[in-house]
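Limitations
The structure tokens in this dataset are predictions for the assembled complex, not deposited experimental models. Users should treat interface geometry with appropriate caution, especially where small molecules or nucleic acid strands are included. An illustrative entry is reproduced here so readers can see what is and is not provided.
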Amino acid sequence: MPDNENIYFDIIVIGAGHAGIEAAWCSSRMGCSVGMVTMDLDAIGRMSCNPAIGGTAKGHLVKEIDALGGVMGRIADDSGIQFRLLNKSKGPAIWSPRSQNDRELYSKVAKEYIQSCPNITMIQDTVDELIRDQNGEVCGIITASGKKYSCKAVIITSGTFLNAVMHVGHTQNEGGRYGEKSAKGLSNYLLKQGFITARLKTGTPPRLQLDTIDFSVCQEQPGDIEPQPFSVFSNGSFPKLPQISCYLTYTNSQTHKILETGFDDSPMFTGRITGAGPRYCPSIEDKIFRFADKSRHQIFLEPEGINSSIVYMNGFSSSLPEDVQYSAVKTIPGLENVKMLRAGYAVEYDFLPTYQTNLTLETKLIPGLYVAGQINGTSGYEEAAAQGLIAGINAALKIQRKEPFVLKRSEAYIGVLIDDLINKIPEEPYRIFTSCAEYRLILRQDNADRRLMKYGSQFGLIPGNVFDSVKEKEELINGGVNYFKSNFAAPKDVNEYLASTGSPELKQSDRLSQLIKRNETKLRDFINLPMFNGNQLIEQIRQKHEIVEQVEIELRYEGYITRQAEQVEAFNKMESVELPENFDFNKIKSLSTEGREKLNKVRPRSIGQASRIAGVSPSDTSILSIYVKG
Amino acid sequence: MSFDNRTIFAPATMVGESGITVIRLSGMDAFLLVSDCLSVSYNEFVKPKIENFKSHTTHLVYLFNGGDFIDEALVTFFKAPNSYTGEDVVEISCHGGSFIYRKVSDLLVKLGAFHAEPGEFSKRAYLNGKMDLAQAEAVADLIKAKTDEANKLALAQLTGKFSNKIKELRNDLINYCSLLELELDFSEEGIDLVERTELLNKINKLIEKFNTLTQSYESGKIIKNGVNLAIIGKPNVGKSSIFNYFLNENRAIVSDIPGTTRDYLEEPLIMGGIRFNLVDTAGIRDTQDVIEKEGVRRSMIKIDEADIVLEVEDVTDLDNSIVNKSRNGYSDKTIKVYNKIDLAGNITTKTLSVSAKTGEKMDVLEREIITKARSLVAGSSKSDVIITNERHRDCLLKSCEYLVNAKSQIEQGGGNELISFEIRSAMDSVSEIIGKTSNVDILNNIFSKFCIGK
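Predicted assembly:
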């Protein structure tokens, strides 16, 4: 008998990547004892691809994770070496925060956060099998070293490690990340239990040596002058680290010509990689092949850290032979004499198509088993972390016999992400976009805390004082919006300002909100007009940049926010028409064959969810509604 | 029990004294259910081998209720999905007469069939994907069509010509939307996919298309519902006589006493292949009589609703000031006619002078009315598809409104997310027409307007 037979954890998290961290962090903070099993204790929170967090729509996820009490935003803030709010030229719904991070430091900070949780135990090992009790529920694990641990729930966050194969040109190695092993045992175990797996691929670009790059011929990309943190917890000393710039350069026809010579050797083009690749994070060979008329592509040169000599070549992910990659890289301005530290490579791995899981990320086949992250077919750290958080919270809630936690599409990008995963079986790695969120005008990064912190607080993941400050903020914003909507300005109060902005002057009094809605008006200047002197509410608002900004957004977007709220109401109506858990779709004969097949696969819990399943037609939905409403 | 597994039935022809009555059944168990009352012999109940009956074949059978022979009938079988509803369908042609129908109907209920609700057959056809919503609505229109034109429009809608047009518009919207979204998705890569002026042009063209379609409703509704033709004028100019003349019957009371017609009268009429709703109104004058006052008020409403106003004057008494005073903005749709030439001798020089009493020149008036009505019907000839349904028009109007918003967003340099929001809203409204979005309340409302048996 193994010597540790009676070691028990409430929850065992397999993997210590971005999903695993959130799962362990949240569930432990909710009072569960957690065992975290990873192949390499030094690889906690490793940024296996680009050294950056956030970006379009992904930044929204990070803000939401933070509002729910997750830890990604805090780690990114602590290890960030550049912060930018992307898409500032577009509307506030599209603004997305992004940080450039020190790769080593990110991992180190992540480890510190995990170690700060007294009820998380780290275990360096590989999990080969799960143990199930007589009801089929998960009750333990067996590791490669033969050890057994018992538990009530398991969360698999194994990333790309299931049956992973790495490709560089014709060379193939088993392994999920450069220099790391593949987890074959667990993959085989899941297959034996009846799970269906499918294949996906993802890629990464070459790494370059910093002091061999001529940055003088590249375009400098500095961070924001007033950097804003992701996390509501980072208000003290931010940013902690000195800030650096990235650099922009471009490929050219010479680069493309050289890369084309390697197409015959590319595992992608020769068909050796059978997994579908991400459309939105395409390899450079993909980009050249698909956008043949584009003479150049952007390449961002991103330093991997403050003291790092490594530069990440964002936009050049490739699995061509090493020599082809290197010759091509050297044709790019600034990289003529570059030293390539490591070639780009592609990883092919198993994932579990998500119709096999519920919206809580618990698998349908094995109760108590949760899956989160790339194993569900997503790409990206942020998508993984969001799922880890949801799986962690739900595992803890289940153990505590509490109601499960599911975010609606109308509440959060996280809700959109998981709903999409379950209902639209991904054929390529799923990446979140703002276009995925039909209610994006209200799901903004600026109001993530106002939307979601109530849940974080409810689960004990957000301290009372933090939640209180958000409630105060909410009150101030509403107070400001109401004030500007119900008070008027006389021409003499505002005409000088209006003229200075080039906006038409007032002839008679007008509502303040009408003036703020003008394109030329900037609220942060407007509230400094003498007419607001001595106004206590305005004084309070003026003190906080973010409150001014949000009042302005609420007023400018007002009409759209109202219309979107109506849509949400209609959406909620459909969501509230429930389908019983064991609903027999076969008994409804008039459903289309494809519709019935997909309904049986996904087993939706509401009419609304049914309507979103790929392959379920509107008339199928109508039939279901009529059937349910009888 | 759920709608889904029920077998429904209804008479597909009028029930009454007639040669035959056709009863239609539809449902997954229709064949099985019917087989319990079919016999191959009228002497005794001998079930036919119904499993040998092929789809789209007709068989002579005898209907039995238990041991009782009820009627001789022809039954036609349609196997799912090749039937009107997409389910198994049986049509029983029994002898006409309400008595026989009632016996067969009782029998079917006893065997487990349910009386169909209005529109239930078409609803099932829609739900089973046999037709889209606009096509299903066309079925109702087709049945109600009373003229050639109305019939043609309903057929165009039924065969999907209208739906295709809507799908075309919808696809345009989807395309614009995806380009805008793609641009947002790739915003970090700095790829511009949509040229603003080009998008503006496209949206403008689309707005034009929507407007043309929406305007076609003006003639569409006339073709479908008929031309509202109101006869107005002072008291005692002979409005009711003209009314009666066209109807070819003494529908309205005619007398020499001014103010005989107190309330309006309305009758359908077909002239020159066009359907009219002919309205006789109370004469317009200042009056203290409470009832007559109300009649005058109603006349004014009828003038507003009219597509054509037939303004009648007495050729022997040309003071028309009161009517002129009340005339506001309907002169475009007015035909002026002078009545009672039989009393005027040959002194009249007015162009359109008639006598409703003798019928003199009434053929000229009739032609005049038909010409005017034709020009109304043809008003939308620039649209290749004509809308006849108010719901469709409303959806298009809403959609168009969103497009106009999108247009002004583009002009003001608004963000992709707002332009896209407007275009998505426009798309949703258009989708409602053909039922691409599913809303049970809308569905039930539409199908409840059908007649039973369809």
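Some entries come with short summary sentences. For this one: Residues 41 and 62 of chain B are 6 Å apart (CA to CA).
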